[in-house]
Amino acid sequence: MLSWRSGKARIWGTKGPRFESHSSHPSEVPAVVDPWANRGSVKTLWYRKAMASLTKSSHILVFPFPAQGHMLPLLDLTHHLATHGLTITILVTPKNLPLLNPLLSSSPNIKPLVFPFPPHPSLPSGVENVKDIGNHGNAHIINSLANLQDPIIQWFKSHPNPPVAILYDFFLGWTHHLADQLRVPRICFFSSGAFLTAVLDHCCKDISSVRSQNLTVFHDLPNSPSFVREHLPTLIRVYNESDPEWELILDGHIANASSLAWVVNTFDALESQYMEYLTKLLGRGRVFGVGPVSLLSGSDPMTRGQSETGSGFDVIKWLDRRPDGSVVYVCFGSQKFLTSDQMEALETGLEDSGVHYVWVVKPEQGDLGRVGSGRGFVIKGWAAQVAILSHRAMGGFLSHCGWNSVLESILAGVMILAWPMEADQYVNARLLVEDHGVAVRVCEGPNTVPDSAELARMIAESMSEDKIEKIKAKEMKNKAIEAVKEGGSSSMELDRLVKELSNLRHE
Where is the signal peptide (predicted)? Predict the structure, then answer.
């Protein structure tokens, strides 16, 4: 039987398993031969059945999409499943393996399965995560990962106790081909919210009609929301029906509806009406609202999501010297690069607002000219966002409205100054601004250069403690925390999910 070794992750290629050492001496790792390669089918079947009978917990294969906003919430959920007795194998490529370290060190139920990243002609060598290339690399990465289907099948068939289900990211809908061959069910995890999930499902199923309109009205959704074409999810705007890569992606999104269940990173107080819509769409009992899953991981807020060197303690010390609710945090996620004009306008707006600020910028975006006033703290690269937002000095969050940032802001009770740019962000901003009033919109568009004076005014106004959006943001924080407490809506849904997964068995 193949065993997992401390400090090593199994890497599979098309010719079977080998081991990759985490030490600096990989040459010391002995070659490993797959013991199942030459076994007779009868003996193999007997052994697998014997192992399955000895294994009390269900074995789940988790397949995340390699982008920060996708991986982190799925890993949070994975932590919860493992602490409730499920056996987990997480599939990653080598450069994404470090993101698993906190999980692997905290739970013996979780093991990594590492495959070499399949090369793609449009991806630079060494790129294995969207943060290293930006959102325009999504399609290429999805298609690259689809080339892992045969190695996964080989691993599955050689495993003495193979998974009973695949828990996968909604970007990886192509896994329906994989699940059909393996004859196991799929559970689709949506790192996004229920509103976006509903919008995306509608658009994918009627993409030709949606793309032909300048304005799409979603009559079937609660309150019949409408979006101009530029504010629809990126997939819908850039889809090319003559490109096989985009066909694979669209087919995968449509195929998500054939999954056994949908698991959504949201909670009732935030999106109950959209969760009810999804339940009607998919069928009662097949949709689980389990968020905010970041509360499930028990991870250190100072290191959550850290994939590069650096420390967040300097900014925390700086915040300690600032009054309560006096600082605005500025961050546009791991994938967005601002233009030089946008950077200049934003810098001027922040400085002229007279407000203290923490601004996260890309390391390659150069030096800023006006931060010498002392009101600003600039972070180049990774930032301890959860810890920053949770600090007592934080009064607002100028954000692109990516879903992870939305939930982290809600959990901190901090209002958002919304600048949606792409992907799910326009839908999320509408939910925050129009549906709940916990945010104000300060700008929109990936290439828009904000008016510095207007931006400065809105930032200054956001610091007022009696601003209605700030009050509502703090109320939403309490509702989010209640959802994951014992007896809360998300807590009960998590219990139901664990029970359903635990009851799965091979045919």
Answer: none
pLDDT digits (tens, 9 = 90+) for 256-288: 999 999 999 999 999 999 999 999 999 999 999
Closest CA to 344 of 421, 417, 418, 451: 451
Contacts of 304 (CB under 8 A, 6+ apart): 72, 294, 297, 384, 385, 386
Are 332 and 419 spatial neighbours (Cβ–Cβ below 8 Å)?
A: yes
For the chain, domains (ranges, CATH) are 40-296+485-502 (3.40.50.2000), 313-484 (3.40.50.2000)
CA dist 317 and 321 (Å) reads: 7
What tokens were used for 225?
């929301």
**Maximum distance among all Cα pairs of the chain, rounded to whole angstroms:** 76
- Adjacent-strand bridge partners of 378: 359
Q: Helical H runs in 14-57?
A: 41-54
- Residue located via tokens 């600020």: 357
- For 251, left (φ over 0), alpha (ψ -120 to 50), or beta? alpha
**If we measure between CA atoms, which residue out of 378, 385, 408, 368 comes closest to residue 318?**
378
Angle formed by the axes of helices 68-83 and 403-412, to 10°?
Answer: 60
Tokens for 507, please give them. 């045919």
Distances (CA, A) of 378 to 49, 289, 334: 57, 36, 15
Q: Give Rg (Cα) of the chain.
A: 23
Residue 23 has pLDDT above 60, yes or no: no
Asked if 370 contacts 348 with a C-beta cutoff of 8 angstroms, the reply is yes
- Cβ proximity of 394 and 322 under 8 Å: no
pLDDT of residue 337: 79
Please answer whether residues 458 and 395 qualify as being in contact, where contact means their C-beta atoms are separated by less than 8 angstroms: no
